[in-house]
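Notebook p. 47: complex prediction with fe (ii) ion.
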Amino acid sequence: MGGEISQGKSVRSKEDSSIIYTSDPKFHDIQKNWNLYLKKIVQASEPTDEEYIKNQFKISTIPEQLATELLESLEKSTKLEFFTEDCDIRYVACRGKANTPAAQNIHFSYFSLSPKQLDLISTICEEMRPCLEACLGTPFRVFNVRAIETRSKSEGVGPNKLHKDGVFPAEIHKVLLYLTSAGLEIGTTGLTIKRHKKGTAYVEGPPGTFVFFNPVKTQHKGIPPKKIGSVKITVEIILCPSYETDISPFVAGTNSLFPIDP
Ligand SMILES: [Fe+2]
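Predicted complex, structure tokens below:
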């Protein structure tokens, strides 16, 4: 297991003006720096997972009981409202039309994660570890975790529009873990299959199903639950190839992207 579990505090206040946003002129250099850093690690990678090599995404599962335990715990948790300044001081924050508090808070909520819940997420990352290492062909480092509730009626809004996460450095990867199961009725994610121009794969499976992919290179969109009033609950784990595996889950804020310094 990785080191100590840490939870980033929302060190920012709503009045803070020293945040580095993706719209900042410095952002270009930060991204360049990350790309150079990750390129060296990826050059030596040896992916072995055939499904991932073929499709550029991997769908797998963790034990359902772990997902259910986390879901039941989250259902008792405080929900957080998204706000633009909610970003750890060491991280870059997102600034975009789709990312305004008004657009976010109507359709999405974030969960406040307790140390006990982070401990459980750490156990979940440990379960996923062999699969993720086989896909990447390198060790990896987790640097941001968010637990998200997506409401019905949010089709095509923000992350539910077909897109690539162009704000991330090119080798950043994402895990989406479905705690409420995954499917077109209950809510899921659609991923464009590279080899078929118009082909889309939809993640389907019981609670504990997850998809691992590169959100910078693979087009994707969130699919909200169809039934009015129902919700999809997912855990988003952001990670990157690394020299050593570190799966300590870190919460950097509802509007955080990745560390300024690799
Ligand atoms: Fe995305």
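Notes: The first strand starts at residue 57 and ends at 61. The helical segments are 26-43, 50-55, 64-74, 101-107, 115-136.
Next step: compare against the earlier run before touching the bench.
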